[in-house]
Specification:
about 250 residues, alpha/beta, Rossmann fold
Length: about 250
């Protein structure tokens, strides 16, 4: 059977890092490459710090791609560091109407599709130049209470159909193994795989880096919707959350 290699699109968050560990520890590809995209996100420094740590701990090479043009055209607050991220109350996290209102705060145009195409382009290049097959993995998953259109199995099906038409040879696979997981399920899986949670980053605001007992660790704001979902996921999973929060998230 053909042994395929793996490209992991990684953001530094719980989902993408767990996906990278799942691929590395369970699927055990012959070769694995982490790809991190700089699209001008306000938390780039914290994310890059974490991803470099993950790359080092896994012993897997990391490639950083410049997509700052995406941030320049985006209306998302994730790419507007001068605009404060509004606090999200815990009770509002599960309100579908309020969730729908929040989506466009974080929506970067076509981001997940662009990320997958970046991975696909690398996979095709490896096959054409070296005859090596790579699957492309992305750490998207079920969002609650409102699912974003580019976090669904249907989205992945469409991207795989596109991959057949967009490449010369075809046969490439774009995969999202956690697509039907809730976040607490991801935390449980990551814990079983030995994910170093202190080197994952979920915050929308960005809190910088801090020396904690001689270790440099990223700081989460604690009050954005992603920080609160992160803390709740660890609590629901029964896993200790080692994250540093500027303010208590729950």
């Amino acid at each position: 059977m053909e042994r395929r290699n793996a490209i992991n699109l990684i953001s530094g968050g719980v989902d993408s890092v767990t996906t990278a560990y799942y691929v590395n520890k369970v699927l055990k590809p012959a070769k694995q490459l982490l790809i991190f995209c700089n699209y001008g996100q306000r938390t780039y420094v914290e994310e890059e710090f974490c991803i470099k740590k993950i790359s080092e701990l896994l012993g897997v090479p990391l490639k950083i791609i410049d997509l700052r043009w995406l941030g320049e055209i985006s209306t998302s607050l994730l790419t507007k560091p001068d605009v404060p991220i509004p606090e999200t109350k815990t009770e509002d996290l599960w309100d579908p109407d309020k969730a729908k209102q929040r989506i466009l705060r974080w929506w970067d145009p076509c981001r997940n599709a662009i990320l997958l195409l970046v991975g696909l382009a690398h996979a095709e290049s490896f096959y054409i130049s070296k005859g090596e097959r790579y699957d492309v993995y992305i750490g998207i998953r079920r969002e609650t209470p409102v699912r974003m259109k580019d976090n669904t199995p249907e989205f992945m099906d469409e991207m795989n159909r596109l991959a057949e038409h967009a490449t010369h040879h075809g046969g490439y696979r774009l995969l999202a193994p956690l697509i039907e997981h809730d976040k607490d399920m991801v935390v449980k899986l990551g814990e079983s795989l030995g994910v170093p949670w202190e080197y994952t980053y979920s915050c929308y605001q960005g809190g910088g880096l801090k020396d904690v007992g001689g270790r440099i660790l990223p700081v989460h704001c604690g009050i954005c919707s992603n920080c609160r979902r992160r803390a709740i996921a660890f609590k629901d999973a029964g896993v200790k959350d080692p994250s540093i929060y500027a303010k208590p998230p729950i």
